[in-house]
């Protein structure tokens, strides 16, 4: 509760320091309850009387008043949306724009005593935001931009030279598998077919295909891991392997469309 | 500095004071207008040896006759204002003035004494009287719905320290309803997750269906409450709670006799 009372009011309450907590609480509640009476516009009769009071003196009209805190808050919150648009347009960055707006609102609130009722709230806050932005920009000239993510992308390119070698390893490895396992693995893994479809093609149970795929995968993975592969120069070379794989893939394609 | 310029910034506060004092905007404004008219008729009567706000309030006191005061029924204003006005109307005129000058307007005891034309000790006595009266008005019988014994005891201590009575501590929906019927509370402090997996929200819904009662939810699961369905307009305190938060919520709920959120 007490936190919603703007700090400005406390300077108006010299008696608060010596009051009991209960009295301060009641005071805060009463100020909330009668906030309307304070924020309301003065009746014309009062203004007329004030004018008459000032007539014999040099200054006739009362000085333009600052707004009450409540009214200031209302007017300030009304300009938040336009402020955000403006901040985005000058800064070109969503994050920076919101920071700017927050800073501008803070500055406006702490300078609310200098705001004159009846002048343009939007223009006033725009000036605050603009000044703040340009002083930021001046300072930012000496700072570099460092985006961790972009930097990572620039500096660390994944190596791709070994991909060909890995591929030929897999192809040679496949040739080492028993025919049935190889067939199942290629149809499911490379052909992207469902176990049921493969089972139909091979004329056996789904469970069989699943176990063939699993065993084939495990064997292939073991070969890749241990490097236990036939030499590239040996009899069943990678040169032969490639056409074989292609052949199987072609079969897959025909089966699919057929 | 011209007198009008000195006075103008303090008029909204004098208006608030007048309105709270007599309980109606119209009568309050009449008094303020009469004060201004008196100053216009005789500017030399305005005290120049004190701060302008003190001078203005002093002129107001001269116009205002406390004994002739008949508190009017509050005309319009927010519901909080009408409740506050009703609370103030029940105070003795002098107590009300002392309380408003000190607590609401923030004058020191010495200033209040000067404005009211009595001694500082009298002002202190009036304020104490007003606070005691309001405390009596807002004293409540509180029902605590909370299944964790330690927290329930903690809440009980807080409630008793504020001068309220605890009618019972319920740990389930059923217990809560029977305690509610056995001794109708003036305030309910409700947890949401209860012992037998029943919900404090359901308990409160059932109570509100029977009669209105201020409710403060104290829960570790605020999202369960903020669903967009009734009973939504409540005080909501999240666990782990700060003692001053609970005290403030209780005082506010009792002062305004409502479950509604104020300010924010």
Describe this structure as you would to a colleague:
The complex is a heterodimer of chains A (258) and B (264). Chain A is mainly α and 258 residues long. Chain A folds into three domains: 2-12 and 19-39, no CATH class; 69-138, Orthogonal Bundle (Rna Polymerase Sigma Factor, Chain: A), CATH 1.10.1740.10; 163-257, Arc Repressor Mutant, subunit A (Orthogonal Bundle), CATH 1.10.10.10. Chain A is 68% helix and 0% strand. The radius of gyration of chain A is 40 Å and the shape is elongated. Mean pLDDT of chain A is 77; it is low at 1-10 and 58-63. Chain B is an alpha/beta fold and 264 residues long. Chain B folds into two domains: 3-137, Butyryl-CoA Dehydrogenase, subunit A, domain 3; 139-256, 3-Layer(aba) Sandwich (Rossmann fold). Chain B has a five-stranded parallel beta sheet, sandwiched between helices. In chain B, strand 1 (141-145), helix 9 and strand 2 (165-170) form a beta-alpha-beta unit. In chain B, helix 6 runs antiparallel to helix 7, helix 7 packs across helix 8 (120-138) and helix 10 packs parallel to helix 11. The two termini of chain B are 38 Å apart. Chains A and B meet through helix 2, helix 3 and helix 4 of A and helix 1, helix 2, helix 3, helix 5 and helix 6 of B.
